[in-house]
């Protein structure tokens, strides 16, 4: 009996000893991975369960979209709200063993890099910008300004100036310590204002005798307003137009000042114009006028306002009204020649001139009384000499002439009352391209 009891007790000892050796301990462990290493909301977290000895799991995800799970391998955890949150795993098994592990994760605010600027004044150099930072979720900023002053800045919304013209890059880089984002934009800066001008005058004013009309060519760049002033009367602004016509009525040395202005600065430039006393005389030498067969090549129509002979193709509704007279030569023999009023050219082989004016002409002074000789013509230096001439158009005076008389003087008076004279100095025989050469003097005004 004692022998059986001993065996029984021994068996119980072995049984309980084996049971204690088979109890499994639980170790809770896991690893998290932030998808794309993007800690700014929305954030996705993948969880790798590395626990041992457990067969049940309880997950707690503070602040997450889904806050609990019993899966061994929980699905992706989503966070939409910034903050510091715990992930807790409680692992256990049927032997009653359990373990817990927790881990904190910081979820950052959403990050956005964006900016704009407020421009002080126009985009003409120098330009100052006040940066407007529209970024989100950043802890630090780095601005880079191409050719700007300053070149870089760590201020959230700095101010920068540009003085050189052209495209300038502006780059903003933001970071929250984990992530970094950049954005780049460009701004175009116009050149700083420059100031200059010159002018032209009509042919009639090439002698710069008073009065002279200056046609201003304003060469200034990036000015927005202008003030034109003669310094002889500095209190009076002559014009505020960009490119006016300016009349100088008196002879002398005149200083014309241009003040150009924009929202950044103003600049001044001055130039001198010398105007001579008015002799009221236009003089032309060696003017060619072709016979009727060459009026399309050499031209047969003269304009003192334009200072040249016009061909048929140069005549239009504008130039037609500026023609003082026409020359009609029958052929290369020069046995039949006459100067004609522009409104009567259609009575010859010429076509009518559009907007033609009337001009009195005396072709043959020898038939009506010579008033001006070649010598007297050459001596004319002032338009007042013409005042004493009596230019009356008559049939005899209109009589055509030949080339027998050298240095023939033809008198005329335009429809606006200006008197003048033509001295025919030569007859050039060249077939159908024949022409005369003449000197012409005419008053600038009646």
Notes on the structure:
The longest helix has 20 residues, at 2-21. By secondary structure, the protein is mainly beta. The model is unreliable at 15-20 (pLDDT under 50). Helix content is 7%, strand content 41%. It contains 3 helices and 31 strands. The chain has helices at 2-21, 365-368, 374-379, and strands at residues 30-34, 43-49, 56-61, 68-69, 77-79, 83-92, 98-107, 115-120, 127-133, 140-145, 148-149, 152-153, 159-162, 166-175, 180-189, 197-200, 212-218, 225-230, 237-239, 245-248, 252-261, 266-275, 282-290, 301-303, 308-310, 325-329, 337-340, 360-362, 408-413, 419-428, 435-442. The chain folds into 4 domains: 30-107, Immunoglobulin-like, CATH 2.60.40.10; 115-189, Immunoglobulins (Immunoglobulin-like); 197-275, Immunoglobulins (Immunoglobulin-like); 282-442, no CATH class. A hairpin with a 6-residue loop joins strand 18 (225-230) and strand 19 (237-239). The strands form 8 sheets. The protein has a 5-stranded antiparallel β-sheet, with no helix packed on it. 26% of the residues are buried.
């Amino acid at each position: 009996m004692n022998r059986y009891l001993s065996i029984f007790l021994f068996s119980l000892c072995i049984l309980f000893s084996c049971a204690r050796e088979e109890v499994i301990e639980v170790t809770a462990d896991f690893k998290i991975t932030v998808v794309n290493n993007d800690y700014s909301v929305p954030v996705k977290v993948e969880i790798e369960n590395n626990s041992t000895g457990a067969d049940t799991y309880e997950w707690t995800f503070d602040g997450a979209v889904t806050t609990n799970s019993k899966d061994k391998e929980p699905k992706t955890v989503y966070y939409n709200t910034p903050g510091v949150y715990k992930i807790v795993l409680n692992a256990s098994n049927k032997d009653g063993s359990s373990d817990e592990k927790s881990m904190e994760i910081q979820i950052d605010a959403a990050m956005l890099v964006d900016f704009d600027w407020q421009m002080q004044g126009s985009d003409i150099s120098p330009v100052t910008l006040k940066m407007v930072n529209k970024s989100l979720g950043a802890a630090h900023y780095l601005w880079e300004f191409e050719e700007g002053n300053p070149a870089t800045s760590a201020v959230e919304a700095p101010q920068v100036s540009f003085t050189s013209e052209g495209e300038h890059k502006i780059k903003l880089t933001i970071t929250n310590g984990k992530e970094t984002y950049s954005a780049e934009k460009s701004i175009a800066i116009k050149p700083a204002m420059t100031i200059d001008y010159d002018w032209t005058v009509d042919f009639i004013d090439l002698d710069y005798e008073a009065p002279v009309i200056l046609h201003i060519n304003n060469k200034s760049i990036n000015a927005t307003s202008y003030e034109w002033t003669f310094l002889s009367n500095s209190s009076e602004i002559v014009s505020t137009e960009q490119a006016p016509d300016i009349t100088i009525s008196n002879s002398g040395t005149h200083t014309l000042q241009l003040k150009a202005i924009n929202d950044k600065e103003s600049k001044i430039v001055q130039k001198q114009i010398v105007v001579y006393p008015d002799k009221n005389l236009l003089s032309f030498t060696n003017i060619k006028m072709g016979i009727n067969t060459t009026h399309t090549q050499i031209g047969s129509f003269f304009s003192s306002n334009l200072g040249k002979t016009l061909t048929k193709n140069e005549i239009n509704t504008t130039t037609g009204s500026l023609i003082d007279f026409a020359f009609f030569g029958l052929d290369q023999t020069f046995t039949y020649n006459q100067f004609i009023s522009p409104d009567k050219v259609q009575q010859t082989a010429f076509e009518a001139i559009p907007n033609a004016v009337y001009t009195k002409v005396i072709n043959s002074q020898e038939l009506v009384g010579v008033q001006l000789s070649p010598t007297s013509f050459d001596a004319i230096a002032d338009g007042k000499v013409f005042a004493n001439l009596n230019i009356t158009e008559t049939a005899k005076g209109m009589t055509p002439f030949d080339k027998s008389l050298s240095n023939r003087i033809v008198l005329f008076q335009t429809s606006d009352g200006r008197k003048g004279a033509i001295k025919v100095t030569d007859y050039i025989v060249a077939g159908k391209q024949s022409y005369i050469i003449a000197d012409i003097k005419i008053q600038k005004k009646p």
